[in-house]
From TrEMBL, chain A:
<dbReference type="GO" id="GO:0051604">
    <property type="term" value="P:protein maturation"/>
</dbReference>
<dbReference type="GO" id="GO:0016151">
    <property type="term" value="F:nickel cation binding"/>
</dbReference>
<dbReference type="InterPro" id="IPR020538">
    <property type="entry name" value="Hydgase_Ni_incorp_HypA/HybF_CS"/>
</dbReference>
<feature type="region of interest" description="Disordered">
    <location>
        <begin position="111"/>
        <end position="132"/>
    </location>
</feature>
<feature type="binding site">
    <location>
        <position position="2"/>
    </location>
    <ligand>
        <name>Ni(2+)</name>
    </ligand>
</feature>
<dbReference type="GO" id="GO:0008270">
    <property type="term" value="F:zinc ion binding"/>
</dbReference>
<feature type="compositionally biased region" description="Basic and acidic residues">
    <location>
        <begin position="123"/>
        <end position="132"/>
    </location>
</feature>
<keyword id="KW-0479">Metal-binding</keyword>
<dbReference type="Pfam" id="PF01155">
    <property type="entry name" value="HypA"/>
</dbReference>
From TrEMBL, chain B:
<dbReference type="GO" id="GO:0008270">
    <property type="term" value="F:zinc ion binding"/>
</dbReference>
<dbReference type="GO" id="GO:0005525">
    <property type="term" value="F:GTP binding"/>
</dbReference>
<protein>
    <submittedName>
        <fullName>Hydrogenase accessory protein HypB</fullName>
    </submittedName>
</protein>
<dbReference type="InterPro" id="IPR027417">
    <property type="entry name" value="P-loop_NTPase"/>
</dbReference>
<keyword id="KW-0862">Zinc</keyword>
<keyword id="KW-0547">Nucleotide-binding</keyword>
<keyword id="KW-0479">Metal-binding</keyword>
<feature type="domain" description="CobW/HypB/UreG nucleotide-binding">
    <location>
        <begin position="34"/>
        <end position="195"/>
    </location>
</feature>
<dbReference type="GO" id="GO:0003924">
    <property type="term" value="F:GTPase activity"/>
</dbReference>
Length: 132, 249
């Protein structure tokens, strides 16, 4: 499933931005027409985040409706899914306004455990990120 | 104390950057890449073998890479065309990515290659999201797969710059609803050029090759409606333009 590749890409993009902090949540904007299944992505994200600063982070997904406009008759509305990108009345292609988004838009972090020697936490065992 | 950062970073920004780099690499070599996507069993390999053979016959330096989850059958079959062919095993990954492709091309791409066909992994979901630095993206579908395919896989068909119908010689036998297919295709990708081909009879192959060559020689390929938001309204992310993590309330 390519949701795992997408989730891995999210983790790889966010990790350098988090620095030494731990990531509490990541918010994505995903268009209806981006060919990503949110439920599959949530599951894949949990897997991809394991052993990284994103482990246990919440994935928030803002879904963006697919919308299009006809420059012939001026009609504007949702594209539906599968999308209708053709105006039957005017016999011309529509203009896509939204729906292809696949972006990281927000990151909430908290200070990481830091270098202070503390009692070894159970969640802090050494793990090498196993990434294909 | 939590820190919240607003950013605006494409999830696939890294692949987009790698695709831009790959496009430049191909440009430097005078090579045009054609990204071929289809479901398994669409007859893609058979058609590609014929395209390679005919391109060679016309004196066009042509090469192909074929991506597969595991086997090497496709590469062996394509090698019969006598064109340089390279297999890329994706080790279970369901699509090719630009960085992976460039790493395989660099030590191998024969000098002077004009046309490089890239046979993507056989599925119509995952590969659609990944730009491979191609000049032309072609989606293939056989008449045996049914006329509702464009509506079942709107991202793949919606982003295609050309659509190739394969095994057209079987169309009547399997009751392919040509009008229904074209109507569905127009719904998700108005005006996309369609080529009906048969690797068995050779029908339509020269027309397809002529179209590919025209695009290689500078003719602007079709721009799908679905691709236009991506290029126009969403800004494309140039390398290093990710919003710096500034403190936000
Ligand atoms: Zn209209």
């Amino acid at each position: 499933m390519h949701e795992l590749s997408i989730a891995t890409a999210v983790v790889d993009e966010v990790r350098p931005l988090a620095g030494a902090d731990v990531v509490r949540s990541v918010t994505l904007r995903i268009g209806e027409l981006a060919a990503v299944v949110p439920e599959a992505l949530e599951f894949a994200f949990a897997v991809a985040a394991e052993g990284t600063a994103l482990a246990g982070a919440e994935l928030r997904i803002d879904t963006v409706e697919g919308r299009a406009r006809c420059d012939g008759c001026g009609r504007e509305g949702p594209t539906g899914m599968p999308p209708v990108l053709w105006c039957e009345a005017c016999a011309r292609p529509l203009v896509l306004l939204s729906g292809r988004e696949l972006e990281i838009v927000r990151l909430v972090t908290a200070p990481g455990p830091g270098p202070v020697p503390a009692a070894p936490a159970a969640s802090d065992k050494e793990r090498s990120p196993t990434r294909r | 104390m939590c820190r919240s950062v607003d950013l605006h970073r494409a999830v696939l920004a890294r692949n987009d950057e790698n695709a831009t780099a790959l496009r430049r690499y191909l440009d430097r070599h005078g090579t045009i890449a054609v990204n071929l996507m289809s479901s398994p069993g669409s007859g893609k390999t058979e058609l590609l073998e014929l395209l390679l053979t005919r391109a060679r016959a016309r004196g066009t330096p042509v090469a192909a890479v074929t991506a597969d989850l595991a086997t090497e059958n496709d590469a062996r079959r394509l090698a019969r065309s006598r064109a340089p062919v390279r297999q890329i095993l994706t080790d279970g990954l369901c699509h090719l990515e630009a960085g992976m492709l460039q790493a395989r091309l660099e030590p191998w791409l024969p000098e002077g290659t004009r046309l490089l066909f890239v046979e993507n992994v056989g599925n119509l979901v995952c590969p659609a999201s990944y730009d491979l630095g191609e000049t032309l993206r072609i989606v293939l579908v056989s008449v045996t797969e049914g006329e509702d395919k464009p509506l079942k896989y709107p991202a793949a068909f919606g982003l295609a710059q050309a659509v190739v119908v394969t095994k057209s010689d079987l169309g009547d036998a399997v009751g392919f609803d040509r009008a229904g297919f074209l109507a569905g295709l127009r719904q998700v990708n108005p005006h996309v050029p369609v080529f009906e081909t048969s690797a068995r009879t050779g029908a339509g192959v020269d027309g397809l090759l002529a179209h590919v060559m025209a695009c290689a020689d500078g003719r602007a390929p079709h721009t799908p409606v679905l691709a236009r938001q991506h290029e126009g309204l969403l800004h494309r992310h140039a390398p290093g333009t990710a919003t710096a993590p500034g403190a936000a309330p």
